[in-house]
User: Fold this.
Amino acid sequence: MDLYKHIRKEDREIYRAVVGEEKRQKEGLELIPSENYVSRAVKEAMASSLTNKYSEGYPGRRYYGGQEFTDKVEALAIERAKKLFGAAYANVQPLGGANANIAMYFALLQPGDTILGMDLSHGGHLTHGHPVTYLTKIFNFQRYKMKNIETGEIDYDDMRRVAKKIKPKIILAGFSAYPRELNYKKFVSIAREVGALAVMDIAHIAGLIAGKAAKNPFDDGFDVMTTTTHKTLRGPRGGMILVHKDEEIAKKIDKAVFPGFQGGPHMHQIAAKAVAFGEALRPSFKKYAKQIIANTKAMEKVFKKHAARMITGGSDNHLILLDVWTSFGISGGEAEKLLDRAGITLNKNAIADDTRKPMDPSGIRFGTPALTTRGFKEKEAAQVAEIMIEVLTKRDEAAVKRAKQEIKKLALSHPIPESFR
Ligand code: DSN
Assistant:
């Protein structure tokens, strides 16, 4: 079957880039913990004629005609999202995770209000108040940190002390580079004590929560969760906001997403979200979510055996943050390039209180969602970790060449699946 026969005929340059990327994904191993492979059904939804349609508004309340099918698509996406996460309300229109977070802030805060979120160098995200974002011109972001970098324990006492002093409107949990489970009950109790809402950005672990391999913050009383849909959740690129119970909050969120912040929703993407949520509701998704963690644990064991320094000492989720500067004497940037040449894609990452610069920090961040989608089990995950150690230790052409061959073999023997039944 030639999936790209029309692009090939109409636009040679884009065709070459598309098939080039497809080959790269097939022959190499994807260890960026925020990436994954979607099913053929999700791709088909994204390639559908729904992309032609304008649908400002919400199901049953649109500004344009011709919404017979778009209403059905969005209503299904909402219903499935609610079921997956135990939410009373879901907004599936955010175009990405950053959009979801921005709309959430606009819905729940006034300019000048304070948010208490995870320190960025301790695992937080750009949209949690990095000075390079415009959000910091509008809202006041304050930080909490880990108490102990070697175990990952958050300093909840300091969080409570600071919260009492600065009176945040939101206590924000969530991360893009933190490998441990959070104590959600503590977040909620501090939020209640100071009259703040408890919000969690679950982007990285949404698939683990949906697959019941990680705790659901709603079970411990969180009010709102934001997420992307394309990481562990294995859907199309996109975002979503979930509201636990409160109808007033849900109304504010809907208004903030549209017309407050975004224009017409991308209905082809929403259809693809619905398809992915349907896949995540199947029993096989639970197995996948559990295997992600088993595979991370298998990698963790190898790094422990080689006495490599992992931030927080290891991982409870899908990702590992490795201090390559202390462990192997090379920077995160060099390690990223070296492993890339061997067919292993991951990213350089700052570690907590990093002494090196963000563009060439001390760490690398990697994880197992995409490997798990390819059918990797503990044995193969451990093998990848051994190959990484070999390359990072030897760092010569022969080691890179050997690793590249082994990685290609592993990749080709675990083809990217088209369906997850
Ligand atoms: N780029 C995403 C990640 O890799 O974590 C978050 O924005």
